[in-house]
Amino acid sequence: MKRLRFLLPAPLLLLSLFLFTAQTSKPMPLEQTLREYRWKNRVLLLAAPTADQADFKAQKALLAAEKAGMMARDFVVLEIFYNQLSAADQQFLTKKTGISPSQFAAVLIGKDGGVKEKSSRPVEPTTWFNVVDKMPMRREEMRKK
């Protein structure tokens, strides 16, 4: 009896292995993720019960129209869905931000890792920009450019 072999071209094999690893690997804890961005980026954390939540969708649409402004201010947007968080991540999120895991929240975290602003409603990007542009670190960044 002959064995059948399925051969994949090398790039496709590598992609398949990467996708398999990415799907089976455990996501990085939220605290560690935020630590990775510290001193590099400002984080706009968008948290919602699910991706279908209306305020979440509205906030994403508002941000999509302001990509240049977001990039100029070193923003990274993290989307968090409560139903996908571990118990430890839910506890960290509540402790760090004070938000309720049952509703939409947008939280601005500065490069220093501190919570700078939060809202339970979608916010115009210019509002976030105004908060950031008043920060001493951002003023220094603008002077250097």
Topology at a glance:
Blueprint: H1 10-24, H2 30-37, E1 42-48, H3 54-64, H4 67-72, E2 75-81, H5 87-97, E3 105-109, E4 115-119, H6 125-133, H7 136-144
Parallel strand pairs: 1-2
Antiparallel strand pairs: 1-3, 3-4
What's this entry about, in short?
The chain is an alpha+beta fold and 145 residues long. The protein has helices at 10-24, 30-37, 54-64, 67-72, 87-97, 125-133, 136-144, and strands at residues 42-48, 75-81, 105-109, 115-119.
Fold and architecture overview:
It is a single chain. The chain has a single domain, classed as 3-Layer(aba) Sandwich (Glutaredoxin). The protein is built from seven helices and four strands; from the N terminus they run ααβααβαββαα. The chain is globular, with a radius of gyration of 19 Å. It is of the alpha+beta class. The N terminus is likely disordered. The longest helix is centred in the N-terminal third of the chain and has 15 residues. A four-stranded mixed beta sheet has the order 2-1-3-4.
